[in-house]
Amino acid sequence: MKSKLKLLLVAIAxxxxxxxxxxxxxxxxxxxxxxxxxxxxxxxxxxNTGQILYQKNANxxxxxxxxxxxxxxxxxHQQISQGKLSWNDLVKITPAVAKLSTASGLTNVPLKSGHSxxxxxxxxxxxxxxxxxxxxxxxxxxxxxxxxFAAKMNQTAKKLGITDAKFYNASGLTNKLTGGLALKGxxxxxxxxxxxxxxxxxxSRLLKRFPKVTxxxxxxxxxxxxxAISGHNELLGNKQIARxxxxxxxxxxxxxxxxxxxxGSATRQHxxxxxxxxxxxxxxxxxxxxFIQTAKLMKFVFTKQHPIIVSKNSQVKGVHLAKVPDGxxxxxxxxxxxxTWVWAPKAISRKQITAKYLHHPKKxxxxxxxxxxxGTARLFANGQAPKYLATYQGTIKLFxxxxxxxxxxxVLLWRAILRLF
Length: 421
Hints:
The chain is an alpha+beta fold. The chain contains 11 helices and 18 strands.
């Protein structure tokens, strides 16, 4: 009885303590409690800035199945932008590709040997229906053969900053399943591999350079020369993720080795995020696991975090002044060159966004005009440096916000004398 009374008194005493003496748990700690994402690997990033908003085992290369088609589509768009290909160009189908298009158990649209189909129609079929033969036909059109296109995929990956990519074909099928198009001297079970981090990097570059691709990936239904085709993205039109969030892509992928995978794209209040889940449960063709995990990840980002705007021509604490030793004024205000933002827990405000110089000029020489370069800085949220995808800087460029005249010779002499003492 006495021991129970002691415990009760201790509990009452703890609750009676002034707030200042109770253990402090920051709001940011509560807000950033990580969700449990049931996948081999996962990541969420800001599509524009490359800021990483969540990651789990994100750097391990894994099989990605049909997510590979994002690289195929990136290259096709690149070829079109360079004038080497056009949307209306016709692609003639080889016997091997035609045979693959009717292979049992593979997602496809039927293609006839010797017939020609437009680049636009093949891209649409590749993204909406995940048509394997259509993707390979596009690769052959770009590079002349499947093996040469695989080499181009690996080269393009390196140019994007992806160093450990393994691409064997345009579709994401295992080498064996491509039939007569299989690469010689390559294991039958070889399958395209990327890390979740690198998939996010590929998706972000695709969306940034070719944003109109979402006009295709947002389609749940489409057609291919009169034949109805259906998409595989079960999150299109889902209104349960977060108020105002709109899912408009991006690509599914499924294989025995890869499990069920999904690259998601969603916008909310003009900010787009990309999510990647690799290796989720895949008990059946209709198993919704990858979409459940993606929805959970998107909800975490949109409801527990928020993008804090750093406006164009605004000052950031920590880098708001630059020295002008020989100026009429010995310092000048510096401002951010262009609008950007940093995601942080909901409890963090703009006042808690600071910066530190990365490249800081020793001094600005007077006379100095307005908009004189005044260094580069990295942003911090509540003292924490955000992480970014490779090739994304996460920095701001600083410029003076007014001109500074040079001090007269007598003032400069007086300053020199003062420095002696």
